[in-house]
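Predicting holo structure, NAP bound.
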Amino acid sequence: MTRVVIIGAGFGGIAAAAAIVRDDDIDLVVLEKADRVGGVWRDNTYPGCACDIPAPLYSYSFAMNPNWTRRFPPHREIQAYIEDCAARLGITERIRFGTEVTDATWTGAHWVITMNGGETLEADVLIPAVGQLSRPAIPSLPGAETFQGTAVHTAHWTPDVPISGKRIAVIGTGASAIQLVPAIAGDAAHVSVFQRTPPWTLPKPDRRYGRARLSAYRKWPSLMRASRAGTWLLTLVTGAAVTGNRVADALVRGISHLQRRVQVRDPELRAKVTPDEPMGCKRVLFTNAWLPALARPDVDLITEKIVAVTENGIRTADGADHPCDVLVYGTGFAATEFLVPIRVTGRDGVLLSEVWREGAHAYLGITVPGFPNLFLVYGPNTNTGNTSVIYFHETQARYIAQAVRRVALGDRPFEVRTERATDYDQEMQTRLAGSVWTGCQSWYRTATGRVVTNWPGKAQEYRRRAARLDPADFR
Ligand code: NAP
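Done. Tokens:
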């Protein structure tokens, strides 16, 4: 039996497990630090949290769902979907919940995985699938520890965060904040939104799925495939806009401009929400409710720099104090710190954190020289800003399943050739040097300026390149 350990039971880990779980020669264990599957969809429960990619595409191609209630479903539906997939595919019973991995070491023959409490487990193949957006980033603002109210990051939301009748301050105007603010405005006494950079927004083509549509989906599953294909075509337009197609860029800019004209009457507010960064520098956000929420009399958009957090609220560079009862950090994630805090030691005692000191890199975002039988899901340079990341996860899962089969057939240890990985990384960095992400500040880059999260091309190019594992790439 080939022993395989997957770390993480989010969309990536479940995709990898689904690709190998039915293989009788494989002894599969999934280690999950929380007590439920779901990854980011388990963790992010803030009001308004929903998918910003249409569900027909933001789901597994091998587990199409006829039960979505709308095109952009709320987080609880996505959580229910992934729990259902894990159960139906026979993965849930392979998961050890409440198990956090602290250490993984290659002995020369296999991986020794150390868990919280010091227990160890051996594996022939190790598949970390811990996500890119799993570790919240909270800026170190002077005085933050003195704040007397409730402070919470969007990814750490709990049902007892007080909103009704409270003064709420939200730092950040990214994908999370633009969903949260419209959901709490009106219920809260007042919302102060602190914006550093205005995001590009587009109307969200959301709609409720009626009974007739859902029963048609159940009767003729091929209709779901058609809907998925249609959604895919739409994402090609936004994808083209952020990868340099001038016509698509002009079209998407025009729609965004029109949205601001229609939804924001006040020219001063409109000027504040008009993006000054290139389109695609950060994720383009689909929303119908964000701009109208900012235009409400009980919501303020503050663009002055935050200089401190006080006992009672936030102080900005103009000397103004903005009192609040609840301080929400919608400040995103430490996306460039791959696998932190797991200590991974490969061949010859080399630390993966050392190899990645200048920024993470991996061949196809999956495999690293010096780290035999280690395959990553959602690794370096495999994020996408305009289509479904699950498409990438499935591609990686199929590739990894091929690698696992080779290990099972006796190809062990199975390690990518250094020259292949180096050439690939050079190609990535050359292409990314000409991309929109290099020219602006975003969570896609490390402090040294290396873009380590995003894939530089079209999603279908990634699928084509990672479709078939080439044994010549490995030693
Ligand atoms: P984010 O996109 O990284 O946004 C963080 C926000 O916080 C930005 O507006 C940033 O400003 C601001 N910020 C950070 N540090 C700050 C500071 N010190 N002072 C003031 N402002 C500060 O994070 P996110 O909104 O949580 O979204 C992260 C990713 O999660 C998204 O890109 C998306 O991939 C994913 N997500 C997906 C969904 C979905 O529906 N599928 C929903 C939510 C999130 P700057 O722009 O100036 O850096």
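The mean pLDDT is 94.
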